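2024-03-11 09:14:02 DEBUG pipeline.ingest accepted 1 chain
2024-03-11 09:14:02 DEBUG pipeline.ingest length=331
2024-03-11 09:14:03 DEBUG pipeline.predict start
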Amino acid sequence: MPYGLSTEYSSDWVGRYTATKSEVHVININPSFASKATDKLSVGFGLNIQYIEATLANQLDSAAICQGKLVPAGVPVGVCDGAGLTAANIGNQALDSSQSLSGDSLDFGWNAGLLYDLDKDSRLGVAYRSSIKHSLTGNVDFTTNANLQGVLDAAIPSFNLFSDTGITASLELPESLSVSYYRDIDSKLAIMADITWTRWSNFQELIIVFDNPYQSASTIPENWDDSYRYSLGINYKQDDKLTYRAGIAIDQTPIKSPEDRTPRIPGDDRTWLSFGIGYNMATDMSIDVGFSHLFVDDTPINNTDASFGHTVTGTYEADVNILSAQANFKF
């Protein structure tokens, strides 16, 4: 899974009209082959078969919808006011409606790499992974507040603004380029370094198109920048069975400013501190266990949604712990 995301908030939090749940799962199957072109140079190529599944949910401000969408469409103000959806009730949680959008896609990309032996103790690697353009299809499910539904049913029953419908969206996951270096200091100690560039600047907005002709397309500005990740690591081989590992990484956020940061992805610069142990159980079998702690900068947000102008202002505080394990078998 090259990308993953899950954020979830309660339905009564202050930023509920922007996000209550955001979930993205990506599964990437990467068959590949490699060949030794010369005594020093190896080349590799792979195909990426990538499946993505996404869910986005948020509350809807029923009074703001009635006053800001239905009244301009011809519903008398008095009808909204009579249903309790007055201008004074904009932001009233008790009147909230909600929507949940979900979709998935299967698309393809490729990756390639070079590995060059500088000498018997060191090597240099270059790896490229293409972007993948996904065309997601799915559905939106609405839960409409009874007051708002009554206005829709009584005033303009053919105006099915919040009927469940199909949706489509385009999403391009970015290309990346990595340059890495490895060197054996002696028979026990090795050092590693890596720089990775990721082209997040192609993620400028997310546009969701509804099959329902009464529902206009939703455009969510993102305005991301390219980002870089810098890492250093060491391996210490105690003996033929046991290897210790440690590393540090500086991981830049692609989000440019508090105004561009949304509650769906409240990311910021991260510093990774990692430790691990590798153990050879036999000549053809080994296990690895690793732990990483991510120090995340305090993350300011000052985001205004494009639909009704609701603004989320504040600061996120976060840190992350990751524990991983893997088993390796040679055939």
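2024-03-11 09:14:41 DEBUG pipeline.report Residues 146-155 form the longest helix (10 residues).
2024-03-11 09:14:41 DEBUG pipeline.predict end
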